[in-house]
Amino acid sequence: MWTVKVVGLGLVAVSLSLELLDRFLRRLRSGRTRNEVLFFPSEVACVEHLFSPSHYSSFCSFPHSVETSFSRLLRCILSATSSLDICVFAFSNMDLYRAVLALHNRGVIIRVLADKDYTAIPGSQIWSLRYSGICVRCGVGSVYMHHKFAVVDHRLLITGSLNWTLTAVQSNMENVLITEEPELVQPFIKEFHRLWECSDPARLHCAIDQKPADCLAVTDTEVELMTEL
Asked: Any idea where the PLD phosphodiesterase domain is (predicted)?
């Protein structure tokens, strides 16, 4: 019995060591931790080159090869190589939908949390994501799921006031923060995991009239183990 426990603890220690080594090597390559702020509304520009960088043809009248807040946001999302966790209230922007679908087709593991009421609004892409085979869960509580954040590869956080809609991108005064600071990323990973578990239709930990805060808490150990997946 003790041998099994020792082996288990050893595997956890090795996994954590590899994660720390990976973070250290990434910082050496980049020179510094990524921190970026984007403001909206974004200038309207063609983004087709982000989906087909090697060759594309576009007859749209929008400016081409222009770097905008929206194009930088798309680049950040499309940089995912292993996982993308999305927690948003409103999701109707077609380019963001295309980016998520492109990642799904590459084999990136994607999970989406959305507000249950917004999914029924015309133009919502939530059901399209589910029909495409992407795992989607909707909040079961009586309050709005009003978050707007995403976590790329368990290391990079995208958060701010921006709903994932065309109006928010092109017409609203909005902000987005992009950061790799672990002390900022980890709480969002923990919150996503907690809400994901609460929204599992197979679980009965949350009654239909309970608030999300009443759900089973997630320990720091569980979060650390989850980031190794």
From this structure: 141-168
